[in-house]
Amino acid sequence: MRTGGGGELVLPTVLLSVGLALPDEILVHDYVTADGRKVGKSLGNARDPDALIDRYGVDAVRWWFAREVPRVGETDFSEARLVAAANRDLAHGIGNLVQRVVTLAARDDVRGAIPADDAWPLLAACCAASAEVARTLEAFDLRRATEAIIGLVGETNRYVERTKPWTLSAAESRPVIAAALYATGRVVDELDVFVPHLAARLEAATT
Hints:
Blueprint: H1 10-17, E1 32-34, E2 37-38, H2 49-56, H3 58-68, E3 75-77, H4 79-107, H5 120-138, H6 142-163, H7 170-191, H8 196-206
Parallel strand pairs: 1-3
Antiparallel strand pairs: 1-2
Helix pairs in contact: 2-3, 3-4, 3-6, 4-6, 4-7, 5-6, 5-7, 6-7, 7-8
């Protein structure tokens, strides 16, 4: 909640004017600093969000705020950190997983295949990740929610490395790849609230 120039509370006034109930809970986050200092026009360290979006894309900016800014505590922003987070998680982490699994699925047609019997730990990890995302979003903890998604990316990659479907026959690999493809789809589903443009592209690739 912020105050207007005259000190009045802007949000309650707006809510009351349209007949909506006043909030009974307010989340006040800490500062996002830049170059180790509080952002201010007089300091010359303010960042233009439109310029950042033009340069790096809206998903990269959205992901940095969700992934790097904790629910409690200050965070220092830099463009290098924004780029590092996008490269680490979106390109190298999620992007590489999708490319890997989609390539395997294209090699062996997995339509209608049932996930392998030994994939139950991965399927359980999918359920746990979705539950954690829902729980942490309810608590307004976006950072913990994105951690759950990245954790599922790691679980899926470890499953693929352990099962090595590229060494199996088509009959053996199809249920293995089906499990990996399902888990990858869950990753993409959970991404939608954070990076909708990227999620839409990845969904098109995995369906």
